[in-house]
Every structure is written in structure tokens, then in C-alpha cells.
DNA sequence: ATGCCCCCGGTTCGGGGA
């Protein structure tokens, strides 16, 4: 049997790609992901720092928007079969979904999506039903993709805390859109389809956070949330060898409030 | 407790994030 090839896939909500260019280039250099999905670009597609990313050795598929949201897929290998925007939400003007196909040099195929799901707060506003509608459309797309029987990774900022062990103070968050039963059920429906939460495939530990608020000393107090997730189809999860949260990226001068999470797949 | 902090647009403040 030929030896498989290790592919590193990563997700990072950078909270403005222009403000985070230096740590972004550092992460590309140090972690050397093969594919990196970005969220919260906070710039139009034309303002994306494409030249710097290409100089670092990456192709970039970008779906930007002025001021808010914005997602991208960076890949060392060519990016094929791009889908821009979440199918089923064609009328949505918010840039929250990108999907593409990446083929390894040995012919391994990986379908990957960069997802920035809505926050949904406050829950008595239209933002909460919009969050749930997005998750419904995402679940429909996720089901479609399973029928392709490929290695698929749906990765990004889901803005959902799956479980009490994924938040520093569960009782304080029970009324929050990120932890409401409907939100958790929406995440669970993706799991029920057969997608695997990569981090939970390798660890049952509590306190494995990916986000710490800028306010109230959340980072030094480790008041974090696990809301950035790598969901893998069984074809991808069968090849999972490692998952890491790059907590070191929360240090430094102007960090994002999220840190990268990445996984190695032996494709 | 929705204020703390951070980012954006475009300006000395408001909206948004989570």
C-alpha cells in the first residue's frame, strides 16, 4: 500500500484580516497548514491582502463584504469547484460561506467549507431566527455533501457552544444564543447526520476553548468558549490523526479574540 | 449587569461582535 499524505486543515476567525496580517503570516509560516479557512475578514474582496498571501505560497478564494463578516479559503494546492455563498440562502447578503475542492499531489480529494455562522444575539431580535435559518440551510447542504461520499471538512466559527464542558460558566450562558437549546440542537443535527466533531474525536477534556472575549480579562482568567469547530465526514474522520488548538495565537500585541484550530488528515 | 474591549466607517460616536 502506498503511504498516505498528511494534509493539515485549519480554521481561524481572525477578526479583521487587515488588522491580523502579521500574526496570520506567522501562523502560515509556523503551523504550515495546507488549507486554512478564515472568518470575519471585515473587508471587501478587493481589499483582501492577496499579494502577501500569495507570496507566502497560498492560493486564496475570497468572499468578502464591507465592514462585516467575510470568509476565505487559503490553499497551497489549486482551489477547484468554488461555491460562493450557502446554497439555500441565495438572497442572503451576508458573506458567511465558501466551499471548494482541493486535490493533493497524490490524488487525494478533500472538499472543504469555510463557515461563519451568525451569532444570533440578542435572542429576542430577528438575529436569532436568522442564526437558526442559517443552521437549517447549512444542515441541508451538509446532507447533500454526504451523498458525494468524499472526505469533507465543514470548518469555521459556528457560534455554538456544543456542551457545558465547552464554556467556563455554563449557568451564565443558558440564555445566550450561543448556548440556547435550539442552537445546540442545530449543531447536534449535523452530528446526527454523521459528521464528527474532530476535537471531540481526540479528547473529552473540558476547557478546550477557541475564543476568549477581549473584555473583563477573559483571557488571563481563561474565561473561554469552544465555538470554532472542525466537522468531518466519516471519510475524513477515518483519516484523522491529530487535532490542535493554537492557543499561542491569543498572546502577542494585537491578537484576534479567536485562535486557530487545526487537524492533520492522512489522505 | 450589557459595561469593560476591539474593529469598522469615516470622524470625535454608533453599530456590531460573543
Q: What value does the average pLDDT take? A: 95
Strand order of the largest sheet: 3-4-2-1-14-13
Q: What class, by secondary structure content?
A: alpha+beta
Beta-strand segment tally: 14
Q: Which architecture does the CATH hierarchy give at level 2?
A: 4-Layer Sandwich
The fraction of residues assigned to DSSP E strands is 25-35%
The helix-strand sequence is EHEHEEEEEHEHEHEEEHEE
Number of domains: 1
The termini sit apart by 13 Å
How much helicity do the residues have? 10-25%
CATH topology (fold) name: Deoxyribonuclease I, Chain A
What's the Cα radius of gyration?
17 Å
Keywords:
267 residues; alpha+beta; Deoxyribonuclease I, Chain A; six-stranded mixed beta sheet; 6 helices; DNA-binding
State the gist of this model.
The chain has 267 residues and is an alpha+beta fold. Helices cover 22% and strands 28% of the residues. The model has no long low-confidence stretch (mean pLDDT 95).
Give an overview in words:
The chain is 22% helix and 28% strand. It is of the alpha+beta class and 267 residues long. The chain has one domain (7-265): 4-Layer Sandwich (Deoxyribonuclease I, Chain A), CATH 3.60.10.10. α3 (127-146) runs parallel beside α4. The chain is globular. It binds one DNA strand of 18 nucleotides through residues 15-16, 19, 40, 42-43, 66-68, 119-122, 159, 176-178, 211, 213-218, 225, 227, 254, 257.
Task: Explain the layout of strands and helices.
Elements: E1 6-13, H1 21-31, E2 35-39, H2 50-55, E3 59-63, E4 71-75, E5 79-84, E6 97-103, E7 109-116, H3 127-146, E8 151-157, H4 181-193, E9 196-197, H5 198-202, E10 211-212, E11 224-225, E12 228-232, H6 234-237, E13 240-245, E14 261-266
Parallel strand pairs: 1-2, 7-8
Antiparallel strand pairs: 1-14, 2-4, 3-4, 5-6, 6-7, 8-12, 9-12, 10-11, 13-14
Helix pairs in contact: 3-4
The chain binds one DNA strand of 18 nucleotides through loops.
Amino acid at each position: 500500500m502506498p503511504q498516505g499524505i498528511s494534509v493539515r486543515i485549519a480554521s481561524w476567525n481572525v477578526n479583521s484580516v487587515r488588522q491580523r496580517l502579521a500574526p496570520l503570516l506567522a501562523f502560515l509560516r509556523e503551523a504550515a497548514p495546507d488549507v486554512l479557512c478564515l472568518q470575519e475578514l471585515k473587508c471587501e474582496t478587493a481589499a483582501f491582502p492577496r499579494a502577501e498571501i500569495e507570496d507566502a505560497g497560498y492560493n486564496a478564494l475570497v468572499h468578502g463584504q464591507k465592514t462585516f463578516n467575510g470568509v476565505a479559503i487559503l490553499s497551497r494546492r489549486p482551489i477547484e469547484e468554488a461555491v460562493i455563498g450557502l446554497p439555500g440562502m441565495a438572497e442572503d447578503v451576508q458573506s458567511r460561506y465558501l466551499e471548494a475542492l482541493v486535490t493533493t499531489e497524490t490524488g487525494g480529494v478533500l472538499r472543504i467549507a469555510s463557515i461563519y455562522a451568525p451569532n444570533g444575539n440578542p435572542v429576542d431580535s430577528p438575529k436569532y431566527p436568522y442564526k437558526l435559518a442559517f443552521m437549517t440551510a447549512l444542515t441541508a447542504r451538509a446532507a447533500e455533501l454526504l451523498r458525494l461520499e468524499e472526505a469533507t471538512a465543514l470548518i469555521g466559527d459556528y457560534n455554538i457552544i456544543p456542551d457545558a464542558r465547552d464554556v467556563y460558566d455554563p449557568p451564565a450562558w443558558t440564555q445566550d444564543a450561543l448556548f440556547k437549546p435550539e442552537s445546540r440542537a442545530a449543531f447536534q443535527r449535523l452530528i446526527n447526520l454523521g459528521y464528527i466533531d474532530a476535537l471531540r474525536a481526540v479528547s473529552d477534556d473540558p476547557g478546550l476553548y477557541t475564543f476568549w472575549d477581549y473584555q473583563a480579562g477573559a483571557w488571563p482568567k481563561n474565561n473561554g468558549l469552544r465555538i470554532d469547530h472542525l466537522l468531518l465526514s466519516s471519510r475524513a474522520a477515518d483519516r484523522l490523526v491529530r487535532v490542535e488548538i493554537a492557543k499561542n495565537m491569543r498572546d502577542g500585541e494585537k491578537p484576534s479574540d479567536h485562535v486557530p484550530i487545526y487537524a492533520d488528515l492522512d489522505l
